[in-house]
Every structure is written in C-alpha cells, then in structure tokens.
Amino acid sequence: MRRSAEWYGGDDRNSYIHRAWMRRGLPADAFDGRPHIAMANTASDLTPCNAHLNEVSRSVADGIHEAGGIALNLPVVSLGETQVKPTAMLWRNMAAMAIEEMLRANPIDGVVLLGGCDKTIPALLMAAASVDIPAVVVPGGPMLTGTFRGVPLGCGTGVWQLSEEVRAGTMSAAEFQRSESSMIRSRGHCNTMGTASTMGLLAEALGMTLPGIAGTPAPDSRLLEAAHATGVLSVSLVDEARRPSDVMTRASFLNAIVALAALGGSTNAVVHLLAIAGRLGVSLSQDDFDRIGSGVPLLVDLQPAGRFLMDDLYRAGGLHAVLREVRDLLDPDAITVTGRPLVSYLDDAEVYDREVIRARETPLQPEAGIAVLYGNLAPDGAVIKPAAATPALLSHRGPAVVFDSIEDLHARLDDPDLEVTADSVLILRGCGPKGYPGMPEVSNMPLPAKLLAQGVRDMVRVCDGRMSGTAYGTVVLHVSPEAAAGGPLAKVRTGDIIVLDVAKRRLDVDIPDEELAARPPEPAAVAAYATPTRGWEKLYVDTVGQANTGADLDFLVGSSGWTVSRESH
Ligand code: FES
Ligand code: MG
C-alpha cells in the first residue's frame, strides 16, 4: 500500500478529513491510489541562489502530472549562504531536521528535492535519507559567467582576490565596488567549483539525480527540460519503491569521493557526505577521502584552484565526461535513481574542450583529492586540499601566531607591530561547530597587510573552522577535536613551532606530548567560545558532533524511517 493511501484510503471520518481539505481543484481520482509527490523546494528571495526554483518546480510538477502523479509544492527551510549570520552551517542540521519531519508527517509517497546554494542540497539529502522515501534531486544549477574588465570573474573566488588587491593597494575601493554587479550575472548558484557546484555534481555522482543533469546552468532551457523529466521519473521511482538507501550505498559514496577529487571539489563536501552517510548508517570515514581520493588525478581546471567556471564545464562535456576519464576507479554496481548503474551512463560521454577537462594521462595534478592530517594538534584529524595550496608550503615549519577569535584576528592582523613573517603559521581557533557556533567559513584568514605589501600571497594557516569552497591557499581546516571541544589547538601559544608535513600526513606542534598534555587551554581561547542559553544555538552547541564525523547533531544521526502510527484526530 502507498503511504498516501494510509491517509486517503477508506471511507471513515479521518480519511474524509484528509481528502476533503485537499479538494481545492483536485478531482476525486486524485485519491484513487496514484502517487502523491512533494516538491521540497528551497526557493526563497533570501536565498538568492535558489530564487529561480519556483519556476523549476513548475516544470517538475508538469512531469509528475504527465506521468499520472499528484504534484505538491512543499516550501522548506532555506539557507542563503551569503545572507545569514553567523553562518549558514549553523542551520544545516536544523533545515535537515525540519525537512525530515515534514516529509514524514505528510501524506506523500515520494519527493523531488530542489536545492542549490551550499547547504540546501546537503540538508535535503540528509532529510530524505532519514525518512527513506523515494527521492530525487534537481540541482538548481550554476550562474552564467560574468566578466569584469574583460575577463571572467568567478563567484566568491573573485571577491577574495579583488579584496586582497584593495588591501595590497593595487585596486581602488571604487573599482572594487564596480565589480559587484559583474560577478552575479544571472540566476543560479556560485559558478566556481565551490560547495554548491560540488554538492550538485556529487548528488549526481551519488546516483540521486536524473543522470546527466547536474551542472546544467540555472538559466539554461535544458534545466527546465531536466526538471520535467525528473518529475516523470519521480513517479516511476515510487512505483518501483526505490529508496535513498538503495541508491546511496557505500559504493555510491566511494564514487562520489572519486568525483570530488577529479573535479577538485570543495572541502565542505567531506563534512556533508559524512553527515549524509551517517543518516543512512553507511560506514564512511574521513580517512576514506584520503585513501581513495588522494590517488585520483585532478582533471577539471575550474576556479578557485584553476581557470574556468561551471558554464565551461557544462560546455566541455560535464560530469559524465569527467567520470568517463576515471571510469576504472568507479564502482560498477552503484546504481542511480533510474535503477541503472552510474557507469552505464558514461559510454556516450565526450570531452569537447580539453583545456577544461583534462585527459587522464595529462592531469592538472596527478594526485588530487583531500589529504587528512593527524598529529598532536589534530588527534581526530584535519583536512587540507593540496590542489588549492602552494606546493612549497606543503612541508613547512614555522612559529605560530595565534588568534582566539575572528574578532581578535581582525583587530590585530594589520597592526604594523604584529610579529609575523611569511614563515609564520597563522592559527585561528574557536571556529569549530561548538565554538563559534556553526563552524563558519573563516579558515582562509586574510594575510597581514604588511606581508601583502611585501608581495606575500600565501601562508600556512590552521583553523578548526571551514573554508569557503571558492577559497584557496595552504589552509589546514576542520581540526578535530575543535578547541572548544577540548582539542589541543586551545593550548597553542604564539611562538610555538608548528610543523606541517602533508606528504607524511602530519600536523604537529613541536612540543613533547607530555608537556602539551599538561598545559591548560589558554584562558583567552576559552573566554571566546559561544555559550548560548536558549533556542536552536543552545540545542546545537549541546549536541553537535565534530567535523570528522560530519558535524551532525548526535540525536539526528541515523534514520527514523517513514512510519507514522498515530492519527491526528
Ligand atoms: Fe549560494 Fe555561493 S552563495 S552558492
Ligand atoms: Mg560557502
């Protein structure tokens, strides 16, 4: 029996109530057992990257109706990465929890998940995984390429670059502002290989989209065509009872890790994939990213590490063309929402621009992926994206310059008397899930103005927060446990020698272990941690896990399934 029939089937008082209030134009045969499919839609004017999804959902609805289903618009919590403070990540789990509850509570047989901006696709997938009803993603797609001074200006990445030019005195503030409207050329999410692009593409690599659609630019007519086809597909998905747990197996996650590396995707994908896997009970660890990903060549030349933008990737052949190059590394058994294996869609893929998508034999880097570091500074691990780093800094030894909060950093960074050289290691703590709270994207700290003026453009930086997927630099992220959860990062003092050795996968402070163990956390660090007393922030700080396991709330890990046993009247 369909889920919806538990509400609408029968002729008792409760089924009458469930049907009657839905009869606003719906004919009687809407309740004859055909699939009721929700469109979980993160469209919001305050999530500008997703504002076009109402139009996309109309195409999904057309497809659902065409295939004999009932399409139901379900607006869900949305998160505008650039708009909400202190960080959208604080509410990824809240959005996932709210969406999960509404998918379970309502009379639906399946769901089409419409997302785009960074946290929206992860939250939708976490929710769908915990309810485990048939689900398929429509990624909202990237913006078209904007240009400034005749050259492409990547979303996010361009902001970091131009703002450093202003600080270095090589660009005026007025010119900086002029670039604003050039960057955001159209509807859609950031067009660099940031978190939104990465998670849209990985949703497909996981098997959770109609094959071939991820990366379709938001204003492209083909996105609406794909949305329509996804609506049609969602009905067969319900008929065939194919659930997220059938599609997102360990094999699918390992395929996503290969894709992440070949694409040069965002470090944030590590946290999101771990959280989604946690909802499904799929065993996946941070080490899987290093073990599998670090042997994968970097094939896609996109900003922030490279040159091109998402529109170029689509033009050059898209995700399937990339995956075809690494086909031998993919698990052939991992299926997609269509029931067919992911690899079965790669035969026809072609690369149309070898500048954008490199051949396996001539990669941009032979070993991409994400490296996971351990050491006395990161007992539970930390990550670095070597592809976005300066090669010479990947093995480095230098004195720490410690900041206890982002405010402390902003107050002192440009002080001409700050004792710092290009060899220093900048440390920022209190930016983990509990400490900030919400693990913001602040790890790519700006460089001290006096060093910028000397021409320094990268330094080793270490932080327990995250970094925007559009950012770059030799930045060690996601240090676990974070300082606020008792991590040794809280004990480091300015002047301690920090040793980074990415080849050996080590991050240490050069202090004997006994001495480090005996040191108390620095009082100024402890004073800077968040101590919320009510509301979501309190629940979050009390129950959030560390980055190395996906930073989900402890009581949200796992699944509650779709069953609701009690009636509402
Ligand atoms: Fe929405 Fe970048 S701000 S994707
Ligand atoms: Mg971001």
Automatic annotation (TrEMBL):
So what EC number does this one have? 4.2.1.-
Where's the Dihydroxy-acid/6-phosphogluconate dehydratase C-terminal domain? 355-551
Q: Dihydroxy-acid/6-phosphogluconate dehydratase N-terminal domain: which residues?
A: 34-342
The domain of life is: Bacteria
Q: Pfam families under this entry?
A: ILV_EDD_C (PF24877), ILVD_EDD_N (PF00920)
Which GO MF terms does the UniProt record name?
lyase activity
Q: Which UniProt keywords apply?
A: 2Fe-2S, Amino-acid biosynthesis, Branched-chain amino acid biosynthesis, Iron, Iron-sulfur, Lyase, Metal-binding
Question: What are the TM regions of this chain, as residue ranges?
Answer: none
Q: Which family does it belong to?
A: Belongs to the IlvD/Edd family.
**Name of the protein this chain belongs to:** IlvD/Edd family dehydratase
Q: Which organism is it from?
A: Paractinoplanes globisporus
Q: What is the lineage of its organism?
A: Bacteria, Bacillati, Actinomycetota, Actinomycetes, Micromonosporales
